[in-house]
């Protein structure tokens, strides 16, 4: 249960402990022409808002431009399909657009080209889509773009039901598709056991009014970039190779960009070795990526391990059909070594704090060693130190029209100088309130008129 009245906006802020900058997020998702993309300062002041930019996610580029989408396909016919991927300038003018992945004819609608983009994309020059010193994303004029997309197909090895499959494409600056990877083609490499295959066959996570299965639900994708593992001779970690994660299958994997083969994988099971058991079961995760060179923890994998429900396997009391048979009611942000699987850092620290978002969410490593966390289900953004101290907290005040929730898919922090259109804002501390004594105006906290001691007879 949550209280009826609670604060929104910036609720905690210690400027001297933060990596200060602007924060970009989408205020509402799949709500065409609603609030759109919002850029805030550290005190929660709105710097700019791009109405109608429905980002999954929105990403800031140097110079004040933003990437996102102008809308989503009717959910009756397409599951989380964005119509296009665009770049808009500070004034909201579209300067680049890609929508020519598939020509779609939906009932009662004229045919149209769609990007069918979902969940992630990366502009060449930056491997992860957030600020990294010395790794600025290129302009649309001379940079390729890696895009995560959907494709409908049937693969009887997986299920007799139609599938909403995940694909990755790379397009050049003119929007020409120059590379493509399709997840279902690598089904035999994923390591599902017989119980999981049987569950998948019966129900590949059916969506779209139970007519198609979103069997993997890949929700993040990025190149590895230069890293110490490849420098040491491990070719699995070639800078061009791509790391992705599957929310529904509890898998994080790296593919060889040239061959498309899976060459490193974590999940779907976490019991085969002592290292896996120490790491613990990852469930429904989001935003798995390698921390880029130049940031603290470079070379480690950073992921928001959601918990909730996900996976395929043998039925159990919590999952009588075997669908989403792994269950956990709390989240954690993990940073771990991809070779040894040893946990380098996690939030909350073991045995303390609380974090839970069963869907969406993300984590960004900041240059000062702090981590920006999107606890997306409740619209909560927080910056935490390596010691686990919350030094900035913001609760989104934007509520979706159709559902009374303030969900944030993913937020990104960028430096002030990426936005030359505005002056550097004032940074006013917001000390943590003592919830035991805080009262809203009009409420009082007075000493009782009388204190009565209860005594035994």
Topology:
Layout: E1 9-13, E2 22-26, E3 37-40, E4 46-50, E5 59-61, E6 65-68, E7 85-88, E8 94-98, E9 102-104, E10 112-114, E11 117-123, E12 145-153, E13 163-171, E14 177-182, H1 194-202, E15 206-207, E16 212-213, E17 218-223, H2 228-231, E18 242-246, E19 251-255, E20 262-266, H3 274-279, E21 286-290, E22 301-305, E23 308-312, E24 323-328, E25 332-336, E26 343-347, E27 362-365, E28 371-375, E29 380-384, E30 390-395, E31 412-414
Antiparallel strand pairs: 1-30, 2-3, 2-31, 3-4, 5-6, 6-7, 7-8, 9-10, 11-12, 12-13, 13-14, 15-16, 17-18, 18-19, 19-20, 21-22, 22-25, 23-24, 25-26, 27-28, 28-29, 29-30
Would you mind describing this structure in some detail?
4% of the residues lie in helices and 33% in strands. It is mainly beta and 457 residues long. The protein has a single domain, classed as Neuraminidase, CATH 2.120.10. The chain has a five-stranded antiparallel sheet, with no helix packed on it. A hairpin with a 4-residue loop joins strand 15 and strand 16. The model has no long low-confidence stretch (mean pLDDT 94).
Kindly list the characteristics that best describe this protein.
Neuraminidase, 5-stranded antiparallel β-sheet
Query: How far apart, in Å, are the first and last alpha carbons?
Result: 39 Å
Measured on Cα atoms, how large is the radius of gyration?
23 Å
Number of strands: 31
Shape: globular
Strand content: 25-35%
Low-confidence stretches: none
Count of separate structural domains: 1
The CATH level-2 architecture is identified as 6 Propeller
Major β-sheet annotation: 5 strands, antiparallel
Alpha plus pi helix count: 3
Helix percent band:
under 10%
CATH superfamily: TolB, C-terminal domain
CATH class, please? Mainly Beta
Q: Mean of residue pLDDT?
A: 94
